[in-house]
Amino acid sequence: MADSTHSSSKLPRPRKLLDQVREAIRLKHYSYRTEQSYVRWIKRFILFHGKRHPSDMSRPEIEAFLTHPAAKARRHLPAVLTKEVAWII
């Protein structure tokens, strides 16, 4: 007997965050290398906070990430993340 809960009327899964970011970057016609960089930094941000979704975080989490000693060691970090943080929040 067929189970009606497995019908083809299932709702589509919501798109993943990084797929949404990639799409938004492509709509703005940014270069592929820029897209890769943004995605890498967003992944680092998410992993830094124990795989929490960025929509569950706010300013304190962003500041913690940006002021972490490993992040400070990267000279180019603030300039790159200024734009990327806008994607997250």
Produce a short descriptive summary.
The chain has helices at 17-27, 32-48, 59-67, 69-72, 77-88.
Topology:
Layout lengths: L16 H11 L4 H17 L10 H9 L1 H4 L4 H12 L1
Can you characterise this structure?
The protein is mainly α. It has one domain (16-88): Tyrosine recombinase, N-terminal domain (DNA polymerase, domain 1), CATH 1.10.150. The chain has 5 helices and no strands. The longest helix has 17 residues, at 32-48. The radius of gyration is 17 Å and the shape is flat. The model has no long low-confidence stretch (mean pLDDT 79).
List its traits.
flat, 60% helix, 0% strand, mainly alpha
Q: Helix count, per DSSP?
A: 5
Please indicate the count of domains.
1
- Report the order of strands and helices: HHHHH
Low-pLDDT parts are: none
- Strand coverage percent: under 5%
Number of strands: 0
CATH superfamily: Tyrosine recombinase, N-terminal domain
| Global structural class | mainly alpha
Which fold name fills CATH's third level, the topology?
DNA polymerase, domain 1
What's the CATH architecture name? Answer: Orthogonal Bundle
> Rg, please?
17 Å
Shape: flat
Quick check: average pLDDT?
A: 79
Q: What is the distance, rounded to the nearest whole angstrom, between the alpha carbons of the first and last residues?
A: 47 Å
Q: Major sheet, described briefly?
A: none
Q: State the helicity in percent bands.
A: 55-70%
* The CATH class: Mainly Alpha
